[in-house]
Amino acid sequence: MDNEDTDNMENSNVIISSTQPNQLKRWWKSRTKNERKLTFTILGIIVTGLLTLAVYFYLFYDKNTLCISADCQEAALQISNFIDETSRPCDDFYQFACGKFLRNNSFDEPHVLQSVQIQMREEILTDISKMLEEPPDPSDMPSLNLAKKFYKSCMNEQAIDRAGLGYIREIFKQMGGWPIVEGEEWKQEAFQWHKSINNLRKIGANFDFFFNISIDVDRERPDKYIIAIHDRFYSPSELSADSKSLYLDYMVNVASQFGPRVEDLRKDMSDVLEFLLRLGMISEESQRTNRSNLYYPCSLTEITEKYHTIRWVDVIQGALGKSTDLRIEDVVNIADPVYLAKLEFLLGKTDKRVMANFMGWRIIQSLINFLPSKILDRAYEFLQKIDNNQQTPLMKEPRWRTCVKASRDRLSPPINVGYIQRHFSDQLKRNVSDLIRNVKHQFKKTLLMMNWLDDETRAKIKHMLVASVVRMYSDLDVLNVVKESKIFDLVKIEDQNPLKAVLDLNLINMDLHYALLRQKVQDEWIKSQTFIDGLKVVYSPAENALKFPLGLFRGLFYQSNRPEYMNYGLLGTILAHQIAHIFVEAEGELVSASRAAEYRLLNWWTPLSKQRYVEKLKCLTNQYSRLELKVEGIKTNALVTRDEDLADLAGFKVAYNAYVDKEWKDGREPLLPGLKFTTRQLFWISSAIQFCTKFPPEYVKQKYLGNWYRHSPSEFRVNGPLQNLEEFSKDFKCPTGSYMNPYEKCHIW
Fold it and tell me: Please, what is the angle between helix 193-202 and helix 312-320, to 10°?
């Protein structure tokens, strides 16, 4: 083909292509106005349909996409260890979600029940023990290395045996002597119990034998601290004849290890036991009349006049020690006035010898884990005898657990910081913060859709929700702990005298506590043990703050590298439950207290919203009243549990909607290997397994016969809310009228 032909073809192509738009224009101009509208409508439907199909296939088309990472395999194994696939989810979802857990767990000591929370705390304690077993590291803060040395000293039971009873005998001398040991050399006329407890306080020994003097946040001035005197809470007030005989045998057995120099040791210890039971009696009487812990502030003059036989100025200054001086203008809150009145009478008629023997006995009990095995073993022998009527025999607590607890009791802040550094990162905080933000946003959307709330009430609750603060931990928190913990640097751990380290650390902690009196109230959250092993979000109405313990950010409850339906199902429902308390507790918040400890309610509700709220609660109360607990003779009181039931319902509903919103935004997540459940079904399963609990019937009876426990039983906390959620029934295709999809539902959130 020559060049001329080629050029003609190219020109021809150009001419043809240029005529196509003209033909389209002529066609379009020849259409009527209605035909043009119809054309646009058809094109719009086609485009919309294609986009919808694209989104559907992207999000929901079941491609059997599996997550096969190690984290997902572990997540699949975790769920497999809970669910009972022989049960039908629409018949009893709690049994379906927890069946294998209930079947495979027993009531092993030291716990009277088995639950997810107990197992998680055990994992946390194990992690802490591994950290404390590490050798001292220069990169760790000195007080954490001290905690490691203390833990090692506690674990060295042979060294404790070699140290013998010499040091505790020195403690007895500080209190004025233990009559059982000193015999006729003990001088009754020289003994004054208030001087004895002051001397014990100076060396870091237990001194709160009769009452507890503490530094509390002042209820009327929450930015300040106040001195408070509390009941010592001795219990029980009576024992069966057999139990009383066994306990007396134990007391005599322990006392005999000290080489008693008395003619009738059993008589002396019997007097101590009777005194202990009388303390239990007045304590129980006080608790019956003072369940809420009274706020009864008194001046030093008033408390001295009211309980005039007790030298309060000396006693309180002795407790404060060198931390601060007692001032004439200081106010003391008498939290248990009935107890103090009865205690004063009891002390006035009790022989000094009995009081001194009682104090010596209580010192032994407070330090028993650091005494030779010949003492500690007697305690376990007694407990086993008391417990021999139980189906499961008492097991001696592993030494590592005892020493972890002892270390945390004395060095919790540096241990917390060490735990943060080993198990948490800034990326984890960001991931968790995203989940928290999404759940809070979803709760705000839920409030807007609650048409039974009027605008005024909704606006107030929304304001509190938006203004609520999330508290985890900050770099400043860590730095403050490092700075404060320098006070422990001078403590020496001596293998030949482990008990001395116990008292030295006790003394520092006492001084730190009583020094709070002159300080401004600050958040001590990061220093507390619950900051590490707590497993529920704490809502503080006074601060409008949601406090998150780190125990929720690991293990079963949260993992960054697994699908979010598990994280939203577990951590998300816990968070949404607690946010609901901002709503529920809007009924009445404690903003101050009078002398009679009467609460002044801050009313967030208009009368109309309050009336509608009560009506909604009636539906929930009626429904839960019909749920049957599988323990003979036990009926829960839905009037007591209804606020928590309402929060449970919010937890499931809000967390689910937050996850669905995330799924629409980010796309569908892969499934877990070996489990034939959809992503949303896996959300529901994850949200239920946190409640899996196996308990003996006696435990349930103790909780619910008294009509005081605010949470419904575990199976109610799962089945109750889910019976009211149409989303759950849809995801599991539960037939209308089935147990998990009843005809009547309570529509609240």
Answer: 10
- The one-letter amino acid code at 530 reads T
- Residues contacting residue 191 through CB under 8 Å, at least 6 positions apart: 176, 177, 352, 355, 356
pLDDT at position 455: 86
Q: Are 75 and 670 in contact (CB under 8 A)?
A: no
257-269, pLDDT tens digit by residue? 998 887 889 999 9
Three-state SS for 347? helix
Report the alpha-carbon distance of residue 415 to residue 430 in Å, rounded: 23
CA distance 654 to 661: 11
> What is the C-alpha to C-alpha distance for residues 412 and 408, in angstroms, rounded to an integer?
4
> Which amino acid belongs to residue 6?
T
Reduced DSSP (H G I as helix, E B as strand, rest coil) percent helix, strand, coil of the chain, to 5: 60, 5, 30
How big is the CA angle at 707 (ends 703 and 711), to the nearest 5 degrees?
60
Q: What are the backbone dihedrals phi and psi of residue 115, each rounded to the nearest 5 degrees, phi first?
A: -150, 165
Signed CA dihedral, 506, 511, 517, 522: sign only: negative
- Distance separating alpha carbons of residues 221 and 204, to the nearest angstrom: 30
The answer to whether the beta carbons of residues 327 and 222 sit under 8 Å apart is no
Can you give 429-493 as a three-state secondary structure string? HHHHHHHHHHHHHHHHHHHHHCCCCCHHHHHHHHHHHHHCEEECCCHHHHHHHHHHHHHHCCCCC
97 touches 685 (CB < 8 A): yes
- For residue 684, give Cα distances in angstroms to 361, 573, 639, 717: 53, 10, 27, 13
C-alpha 169/C-alpha 206 separation (Å) is 14
Distance CA 523, CA 542 (A): 12
Q: For residue 200, which of 364, 310, 341 has the smallest C-alpha distance?
A: 364
Tell me the pLDDT tens digit for each residue of 66-103: 888 999 999 999 999 999 999 999 999 999 999 999 98
How many residues make up the chain in this entry?
749
Instruction: Give the chain's end-to-end CA distance (angstroms, integer).
Output: 80
Q: Which amino acid is at 301?
A: T
